[in-house]
Amino acid sequence: MDNGLTDATPTAAAFRLILLSKSNPVMGCYMFWTSLLVLKMLVMSLLTGRQRMKTKTFANPEDLRLSRSPEVRFGDPNVERVRRAHRNDLENILPFLLMSLVYIASGPNPLTARLLIRIGASARLLHTVVYAIIPVPQPARSLAFFTTFAITCFEAGYVLVCCIKYI
Amino acid sequence: MDNGLTDATPTAAAFRLILLSKSNPVMGCYMFWTSLLVLKMLVMSLLTGRQRMKTKTFANPEDLRLSRSPEVRFGDPNVERVRRAHRNDLENILPFLLMSLVYIASGPNPLTARLLIRIGASARLLHTVVYAIIPVPQPARSLAFFTTFAITCFEAGYVLVCCIKYI
Amino acid sequence: MDNGLTDATPTAAAFRLILLSKSNPVMGCYMFWTSLLVLKMLVMSLLTGRQRMKTKTFANPEDLRLSRSPEVRFGDPNVERVRRAHRNDLENILPFLLMSLVYIASGPNPLTARLLIRIGASARLLHTVVYAIIPVPQPARSLAFFTTFAITCFEAGYVLVCCIKYI
Predict the structure, then answer these.
(1) How far, in Å, CA of A131 to CA of A147, rounded?
(2) Contacting subunits of C (3+ beta carbon pairs below 8 A)
């Protein structure tokens, strides 16, 4: 976890400027929140599995033996709610993470960048809570959704302007 | 947005060689087109929302109040078409973007790399137009699909050969 | 494919320490297996197409002419099995690849990191075989699934601890 260089050498000082390395605090912040969001996405699989067990809704014949269900079933509302939340994660968290990585590589203001990453990631954690764990009346889910949505748009706009000459 | 080094120092010259940084024009090109594709994917969510509003097809009970629909509905053809296009994006754009990043890290010919990124990304923009916005007779959609498909395969093949010794 | 620097210069030696570059053997290993997994995911599209052709199950009216099918159809069990396997890939391979990239950037032990990448990627290749190609009785699919699942969790935990100060 240490690159073996001390700050005393000029090369080491220069290395502090490599944007996609953990010597950049923005990248450190990104790495922390990426790990949290990836864990959250993995938990969705477990939540789906729990709902499938509870409602005995299995989509594959080879899974029936696990719960002694008589036949494959589809479309249980509880299973489908978790699956919709999971799909929503794929549609939004993965683009957000990829976009944030590219945004960091464009060298933004460190304070702004860290703020955007923290808020964007927290909003997605909240989104899962109000969608799949405790269904809450609207607009709770919409607010959480559009927070990360707007941040991803801002990051994309910033990089577009910053890299327009490479089109 | 500036790393504070001038080209006069040898270290700065060496930094121009870091592949995953915006000092590399290929990475700049990748960053520009990634932002466009991410924006395009986010627009798919809005298109789905518009179709849901128009056809009053809502999948969650808590969303019904928004449009005064009497009950949850599924399987409207207009909503499903946009959702299939969105899923197709997840299946193809995300692997294309990840593969291109790894391809850039392998140090390809800059001209080839930029050409592949530009064509691959443009084909996906076209794919959305002919799938979800103005449905066009085949083979328009297939051509757009297989263009990016072939480019992603080429990039994967290039990296496989280039990194075979690290297997 | 060569950065034009020899090991004789101190700068070149320092460059060997950039984690997200192919001069890092862990990154080379990651690049190889990422290419394999991306190719595998693309093959899922072809498998779906083959099942659609075989069972004449097309979801879009404009695709009917290709196979002279009379109307759009949904829910064929063979098509749906491949689509579930494909969706499972999106839910697991993409987070695994993104998480592994961040894990490499955190500078883990090279031997451990390469081992985790190799096992995690191989388990996903196996998962596709037992899910979509030759359906095998459980727990074959569960074992393959939870291998990559556990590795992704471990990587996320490692990065969380390593980057907690950047929260």
Answers:
(1) 15
(2) A, B
Neighbours of C52 (CB within 10 A): 22
Cα–chain-centroid distance for residue C42? 11
Residues of A with Cβ-Cβ distance to C92 under 8 angstroms: 42, 45
Contact check, Cβ <8 Å, B159/C31? yes
CA within 13 Å, CB half, B93? 32
Cα–Cα distance measured from residue B28 to residue B30, given in angstroms and rounded to the nearest whole number: 5
The alpha-carbon radius of gyration of chain B (Å, integer) is 21
Q: Count of alpha carbons within 13 Å of B62, Cβ hemisphere only?
A: 13
As given in the structure block, the two tokens for residue A22 are 């953990």
The tally of CA atoms less than 13 A away on the side-chain side of residue C72 is: 10
Distance of CA C122 to the CA centre of its chain: 9
Q: Does A110 touch chain B (CB under 8 A)?
A: no
Please tell me the least confidently modeled range out of A101-105, A159-163, C130-134.
Answer: C130-134
- Chain B residue with Cα closest to A15: B15
Would you call C69 helix, strand, or coil by DSSP? coil
C131 closest CA partner among C120, C144, C148? C144
CB of C89 within 8 A of CB of C44? Answer: yes
Digit-coded pLDDT (tens) for A110-138: 899 999 999 999 999 999 888 878 877 77
Lookup: tokens for B161: 């050969």
Looking at beta carbons, which residues of chain A come within 8 Å of B86?
91
Chain C residues touching B164 at Cβ < 8 A: 32
Number of H helices, E strands in chain A: 6, 0
User: How many Cβ atoms are within 10 Å of A25's Cβ, its own excluded?
Assistant: 16
Closest CA to C86 of A45, A115, B90: B90
CA B47 from centre of chain: 17
Whether A14 shows a pLDDT value over 70: the answer reads: no
Beta-carbon-side half-sphere exposure of residue B92 (alpha carbons within 13 Å): 26
